[in-house]
Write a structure and sequence with these properties.
The complex is a heterodimer of chains A (336) and B (344).
Chain A lengths: L1 E4 H15 L3 E5 L15 H5 L4 E3 L4 H13 L3 E8 L7 H8 L2 H4 L9 E6 L15 H4 L5 E3 L4 H13 L4 E6 L6 E4 L13 E4 L4 E5 L3 H11 L6 E5 L2 E3 L3 H11 L2 E8 L4 H13 L8 E5 L8 H7 L3 H14 L11
Chain B lengths: L12 H9 L3 H23 L14 H10 L6 E2 L5 H7 L3 H8 L33 H15 L5 E6 L6 H12 L4 E7 L2 E2 L2 E2 L20 E5 L3 H16 L5 E6 L19 H6 L3 H9 L4 H24 L26
Helix pairs in contact in B: 1-3, 2-3, 2-4, 2-10, 2-11, 3-4, 3-8, 5-11, 6-7, 10-11
The chains are: A alpha/beta (336), B alpha/beta (344).
Chain lengths: 336, 344
């Protein structure tokens, strides 16, 4: 067992796969000599050398394009995009190139590429460096998208992603890089992407969350534990997401709450709620609930940023309301 | 003059490529005529409504792709543009697989999933042709990065039009390739028009190759109508890249005798410009170099043969089956139904 911060867990996963497979290479801005601005690639340059661990210019199109080309040639590149927002200047290489190459070549070319990007709010980085942006990618068949909820989750997802034959984008909650967890890397189960994790088992309500909202939902579940048992699922992979496990859970509990760190309109929870409505309508005893951020950019002020994100108290209140009255309170920003 | 052996539509891609790589210029001439005739057929079929979507044909530019195919290694990745029919044939893809793809049939090189703008044949280094202007440049840099990391000796060739020299991916790709001395050749097919706009209305320099100076790499202008000139420049750049000398930017000045796409009549071109370039038809120039006594007869012989062959190809493609519905799910992710993993 070792207590690892999330950035250390990521580094351990990279080092493990790089030792096992010489085709794994790492590239990105300040990932080599500096060990990454979030210190998730520390020591890799020293261990694996400058051909396999490369500092790049501030050139996201070149970073991602080079990763796509290297992957098509049979390497397994792991590209770091420092802030997920920077995908915006190079989205073509992910959504239009990486996601389509297997398809357009009828399987002659594959793109076993991993893009790691920091994501999310909570650090006071303001509107251009605090988004999660998974919804930019969800409507793109050919991609896989995942987001860890802590060190073990990050370790497992990254090792699975590097071994995955398709392009995977991992959105790492920035606010969690310093979070610690005890686990034994040697005994981590590697299965595959697309499996939701049951964080706690319950029968009163299904709560589905992703990324740092898993921790918020878990704390909320603790808060209501005397009254209600929450079946909490950490999706981990949002594309493709674990439809079967979510539907199975809702069929048992009859209630569904999704907890999202993204603006309400078009958030991933919309897809989860729609699918559950289609597949488990007759099992529902109350309307499905989306707990999201408001439709606004992420504010800078610490007070406003806290208000912007779903809080554990708010999630707990909504669980109570749904289980007690069969309906929840309107989002705080909606007029009464 | 003895004409080269008949290149049947069923001959496989590697054999077809080997003919070009033999260095026998008669094969190069023959391939250029094959491309010319296929492109003419594509335009006819499009106007008859037998080709869906769009097409971008390359009549007039045949020397560039054939020159590259005759000197690049069969495993050297070639990344080119949506004006890619000629590149596919030049690198070796058989006419039936190219035309089949353009027509969306299951006999196409990707079974109708790709289409005119997305041709590929890994067996001869034809990486998927890219239909987002400039996107192939950083991807080629990545192929070169793989080569350098593994020391596998391959050289990537990034082919792009003059229009792509104005997109950000060009700058990022050339800077990174030069910074890391990657084995890649940047080859601009400058046909003087980005879609309907002439280069002097869109581009700050007359010679794209002059931009090489900004990236600390050699920049070379060649006559894209003269096969031997393109061959020589590309061979030198490949040799340089393969021996660790880093990238080169080559600009081949050429011209498309036709419009940008579909049925574009290209009325935006000044009077007389096309005629000037037709007088420098790359096929005629090579025919005259090979057989100065009677180049037109040689061209006529080759044309007649390819027109007959291509008519057979068209018939066979028309008679071939459409893809089936399930085909659209086969290659979205690994393990799709019917997907046979290729080893990389």
């Amino acid at each position: 067992m070792a207590e690892l911060r999330m950035n250390q867990a990521i580094r351990e996963a990279l080092a493990h796969e790089m030792r096992a497979d010489p085709s794994v290479v790492v590239l990105g801005e300040d990932v080599a000599a500096a060990g990454g601005v979030f210190k998730a690639t520390e020591g890799l340059l020293e261990e694996f050398g400058p051909l396999r661990v490369r500092d790049t210019p501030i050139s996201e199109t070149a970073i991602l394009g080079a990763a796509v080309g290297a992957a098509m040639a049979g390497m397994r590149p792991v590209a770091e995009i420092m802030f997920v927002e920077f995908l915006g200047v190079a989205l073509d290489q992910i959504a239009t190139q990486a996601a389509k190459m297997r398809y357009l070549s009828a399987g002659q070319f594959t793109v076993p590429l991993v893009v790691r990007a920091s994501a999310g709010a909570g650090l006071g980085f303001g509107a251009q460096h605090s988004q999660t942006l998974e919804t930019w990618l969800l409507n793109t068949p050919g991609l896989k998208v995942a987001s860890p909820s802590g060190p073990l989750s990050a370790y497992r997802l990254l090792r699975n992603a590097i071994r995955d034959p398709d392009p995977v984008i991992i959105l790492e909650p920035r606010a969690l890089y310093g979070v610690r967890e005890d686990f034994d890397p040697a005994s981590v189960d590697l299965d595959r992407l697309g499996v939701a994790r049951r964080v706690r088992e319950g029968d009163a309500v299904t709560v589905v969350a992703l990324g740092q909202m898993v921790r918020v939902a878990a704390s909320a579940a603790d808060l209501v534990a005397d009254n209600w048992s929450v079946d909490l699922l950490d999706l981990e992979t949002i594309l493709p997401w674990d439809r079967d496990r979510v539907v199975e859970s809702v069929k048992r509990t009859g209630r569904l709450i999704v907890v999202e760190e993204n603006p309400r309109t078009g958030g991933w929870g919309t897809e989860v709620v729609a699918h559950v409505a289609e597949k488990a309508w007759s099992s529902l005893v109350a309307p499905p609930v989306r707990i999201t951020c408001p439709d606004a950019p992420v504010p800078f002020s610490a007070k406003l940023e806290r208000r912007y994100l779903p809080s554990l108290e708010w999630v707990a209140q909504q669980i109570e309301a749904l289980c007690t009255a069969g309906r929840v309170l309107a989002p705080w920003w909606e007029p009464l | 003059m003895e004409t080269p052996e008949r290149q049947g539509p069923t001959q496989n891609a590697r054999e077809r490529r080997a003919l070009l790589r033999s260095g026998d210029l008669r094969h190069a001439l023959d391939r250029m005529m094959e491309i010319r005739v296929l492109e003419e057929q594509v335009q006819k079929l499009f106007l008859k409504g037998l080709i869906p979507g769009t097409t971008h044909t390359c009549q007039g530019q045949e020397a560039v792709c054939v020159a590259v195919a005759s000197v690049a290694g069969v495993n050297d990745p070639v990344l080119c543009t949506y004006r890619g029919h000629g590149w596919a044939l030049a690198l070796g893809a058989p006419a039936a697989s190219v035309l089949g793809e353009i027509m969306g049939k299951s006999v196409g090189c990707t079974g109708g999933l790709g289409g005119s703008m997305h041709l590929s044949d890994r067996s001869v280094g034809l990486w998927p042709t890219i239909a987002i202007v400039g996107a192939q440049l950083p991807i080629a840099v990545g192929a070169a990065l793989a080569s350098q990391t593994r020391s596998d000796g391959t050289v990537a060739i990034a082919v792009f039009g003059d229009g792509a020299a104005n997109i950000g991916a060009f700058h990022e790709a050339l800077n990174l390739a030069s910074l890391w001395s990657l084995p890649v050749v940047f080859l601009c097919e400058n046909n003087f028009y980005g879609e309907y706009s002439r280069i002097d209305r869109t581009t700050s320099v007359a010679d794209i190759a002059s931009r090489a100076a900004a990236y600390n790499m050699p920049g070379i202008v060649v006559d894209g109508q003269v096969l031997a000139d393109v061959r020589q420049a590309v061979q030198a750049a490949i040799d340089r890249a393969r021996t660790g000398g880093g990238p080169t930017l080559i600009e081949a000045k050429t011209y498309r005798f036709v419009g940008h796409s579909r049925a574009d009549p290209a009325k935006y071109r000044p009077a007389g410009e096309l005629e000037g370039w037709l007088a420098r038809d790359p096929i005629r120039l090579l025919a005259a170099a090979i057989h100065p006594e009677a180049p037109d007869e040689l061209m006529a012989t080759l044309r007649n043969r390819w027109e007959a062959t291509m008519a057979e190809v068209v018939d066979s493609v028309l008679a071939s089956p459409e893809p089936v519905e399930q085909d659209m799910f086969r290659h979205v992710y690994a393990g799709g139904s019917g997907e046979a993993e290729v080893s990389t």
